[in-house]
């Protein structure tokens, strides 16, 4: 029973930051009636993608001894998995109705992924009886890692949304360009916190918050995309 309670506490602490950010980002599209079912599906899809990521990252950890290369490959695989989940919804399900939809869906996938990843990170210190460490981990995940996932994935959504009225091929090329940018951003963050001091870590979180400001601006840019501008 104690193990179940620990998992529930970790799950609630892990999922709450994602739900708060999900509410914030979906409000960016409050004027458009996005299907809650689709957004929920994106969130669940991102959460399930963590299972694949865990096994893949274990293989990478066993095969690669260099820490920097491991962090780069982990970031790459996580972004690719999230990209695949989002691509199924954006391209296969044809759920895109407006340019901003792609950013909403990509952010939702990222938040689902971050929710489960956060849960696993918080479960460690909780299982060892370190409540203070669990609280610190929760706060750090809220202000740092969760935003890295959101900003990185939303960059893909921005590229798709910005070229919304172009051909399907152009949107696919734009999506892969966004994926490359997402991998670079995520890998840079990972590398910046390896063996970093507290000050360096705070600086890394600082530029991520700066990226969030840019992300909000990009939301407004995508909202302004219209056929007459293309």
Kindly state the number of beta strands: 0
Q: Helical stretch count?
A: 7
Strand content: under 5%
Shape descriptor reads: globular
Name the helix and strand elements from N-terminus to C-terminus, one letter apiece: HHHHHHH
Q: Which structural class matches the secondary elements?
A: mainly alpha
The percent range for helix content is: over 70%
Main pleated-sheet profile: none
Q: Output mean pLDDT.
A: 79
Number of domains as seen in the coordinates = 1
List the topology elements.
Layout: H1 2-26, H2 36-63, H3 67-92, H4 99-127, H5 131-162, H6 168-192, H7 198-223
Task: Describe the model.
With 230 residues, this protein is mainly α. It has one domain. It is built from 7 helices and no strands. The protein is globular and about 50 Å long. The termini are far apart. About 4% of the residues have low confidence.
Features:
0% strand
Short précis:
The protein is mainly alpha-helical.
């Amino acid at each position: 029973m104690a193990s179940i309670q620990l998992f529930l506490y970790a799950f609630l602490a892990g999922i709450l930051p994602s739900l708060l950010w999900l509410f914030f980002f979906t409000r960016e599209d409050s004027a458009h009636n996005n299907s809650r079912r689709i957004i929920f599906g994106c969130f669940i899809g991102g959460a399930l993608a963590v299972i694949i990521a865990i096994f893949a990252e274990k293989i990478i950890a066993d095969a690669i001894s260099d820490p920097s290369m491991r962090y780069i490959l982990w970031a790459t695989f996580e972004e690719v998995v999230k990209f695949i989940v989002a691509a199924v919804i954006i391209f296969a399900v044809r759920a895109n109705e407006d340019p901003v939809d792609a950013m909403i869906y990509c952010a939702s996938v990222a938040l689902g992924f971050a929710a489960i990843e956060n849960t696993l990170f918080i479960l460690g210190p909780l299982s060892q009886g370190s409540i203070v460490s669990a609280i610190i981990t929760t706060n750090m995940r809220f202000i740092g890692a969760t935003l890295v996932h959101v900003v990185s994935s939303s960059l893909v959504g921005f590229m798709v949304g910005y070229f919304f009225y172009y051909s399907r091929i152009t949107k696919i090329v734009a999506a892969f360009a966004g994926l490359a940018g997402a991998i670079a951003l995520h890998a840079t963050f990972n590398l910046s916190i390896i063996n970093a001091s507290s000050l360096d870590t705070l600086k890394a979180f600082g530029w991520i918050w700066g990226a969030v400001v840019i992300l909000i601006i990009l939301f407004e840019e995508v909202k302004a995309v219209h056929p007459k501008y293309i």
